[in-house]
Design a protein that fits this description.
The chain has a two-stranded parallel ribbon with strand order 1-2. It is mainly alpha-helical. It has eight helices and four strands; from the N terminus they run ααβαβαβαααβα. Helices cover about 50% and strands about 5% of the residues.
Length: about 190
């Protein structure tokens, strides 16, 4: 048995390549050992992953347990938290998440606003902009010069008009909302060890 499964540490970091058995040999057995404890409700155990495919795989594997914990992608979990709270600015936009294939519509509209900018340049700017939103406060992204501020304003206006949010915003807004609430009782508690 892997030492992470028997560890009582609140934080465990396992670094291993994809397909090396982290889910089967560590994550699922660790969840099973937590669920064996007296008084632990399966809804209090959360298993997170980054891709939809691995979330489906994880759900399949935990169904074999006597009691199944919640398993989800990080973005899905963050989105469900944002949807459960009403006191934040993004609330009116999280019902429509802009997926990659829908960004083509946004890019076409940006091309109308910036007709002299090549579409590939707009595409790179949108990628850079959305990546910035994933890790920085919105007020700090694309503020370096007037051209970048105009691009930002166009994207923000488009998202507001279409009541849409970018996937890259979800984690930032969820963590920001947790900070704003200032009371961890408002945020679901889960067993981590």
């Amino acid at each position: 048995m892997h030492p992470a499964v028997t560890s009582n540490s609140r934080r465990i970091c396992v670094i291993a390549a994809p397909g090396s058995g982290k889910t089967t040999q560590i994550l699922v057995p660790k969840a099973a050992s937590i669920l064996e404890r007296q008084g632990v409700d399966p809804t209090d155990v959360l298993l997170l992953t980054f891709s939809r495919v691995s979330a489906i795989d994880l759900r399949t594997k935990v169904r074999a347990l006597a009691r199944s914990p919640r398993s989800s992608t990080v973005h899905s979990f963050a989105l469900s938290f944002l949807l459960s709270e009403n006191n934040h600015d993004i609330r009116n936009r999280v019902d429509a998440i802009l997926l990659d294939f829908q960004k083509a519509v946004l890019l076409a509209d940006l091309k109308l606003i910036f007709p002299r900018v090549h579409l590939k340049v707009l595409e790179r700017q949108l990628e850079e902009f959305s990546a910035g939103w994933a890790i920085q406060p919105h007020d700090d992204v694309f503020e370096e010069d007037d051209e970048r501020r105009r691009f930002k304003a166009a994207v923000v206006n488009w998202l507001a008009e279409h009541e849409a949010a970018m996937m890259e915003e979800i984690i930032y807004h969820a963590t920001d909302l947790v900070r704003q609430l200032g009371n961890d009782k408002e945020f679901p508690r889960y067993y981590f060890s």
